[in-house]
Amino acid sequence: MTAEARAVYERMHTSLQALKRYSVSVQSSQDEVLDYGYKLQHNSQATLDVQAPTHLRAQISGEAPRLIVYDGNTLTLASPEQGYYAQTPAPATLNQLVNGLIAHDVEMPLVDFLSQTRQAQFLAGVKRGVLVDSEQIDGQTCDHLAFREPTIDWQLWVSQGAQALPCKLVITTRYTLGDPQYQATMKWNTNPGFAADHFTFVAGKDAKRIPFTRDSVAPQQEPQP
């Protein structure tokens, strides 16, 4: 990896590590490859509200609208449109929770990206990385990075200025029919005002509680809280 690319990435890592409270809006698309290489694109929108180290609220729309709420003790997965929700005991910190979500295949936009970039793990598989140029993304001047791993290529746009935050991410899966892509654009609010009950889940009067598919979302290698 070039020194220029690493320097941009390290600035982003430092900025993300410094964030204790933020809200990020995500517009994402995911390719689905059908027979004969025909591709469908699935789109979704999400807002992730975080108050580290113990609070998360994710509102996700698209083909499968859902709500994810974590209050430091309990994780709630809800489908308000269908009128049901499930709850389970959760780990004591957000980092542990995110690792558990990944381990148990609970889908949430950018959950692995935000976790790994904050923990400096995202470059582990990179074989080559370069700083391509600077470009405008939603009115912001961003550094454009390109990386190659054994089976994927990914591009990252990072805002210039005092806070270096990710603005856009594109992941291309190589050696798979159709070279499917995942793409996400991000808009950040680094000083949001959250109401006192923002991270408290309150079920609707007709909502039905159903069993959680796992006893806990704690990482499998760690003891239950």
Automatic annotation (TrEMBL):
<keyword id="KW-0732">Signal</keyword>
<dbReference type="GO" id="GO:0015031">
    <property type="term" value="P:protein transport"/>
</dbReference>
<dbReference type="Pfam" id="PF09865">
    <property type="entry name" value="DUF2092"/>
</dbReference>
<dbReference type="InterPro" id="IPR019207">
    <property type="entry name" value="DUF2092"/>
</dbReference>
<protein>
    <recommendedName>
        <fullName>Outer membrane lipoprotein-sorting protein</fullName>
    </recommendedName>
</protein>
<keyword id="KW-0813">Transport</keyword>
<keyword id="KW-0653">Protein transport</keyword>
<dbReference type="InterPro" id="IPR029046">
    <property type="entry name" value="LolA/LolB/LppX"/>
</dbReference>
<comment type="subunit">
    <text>Monomer.</text>
</comment>
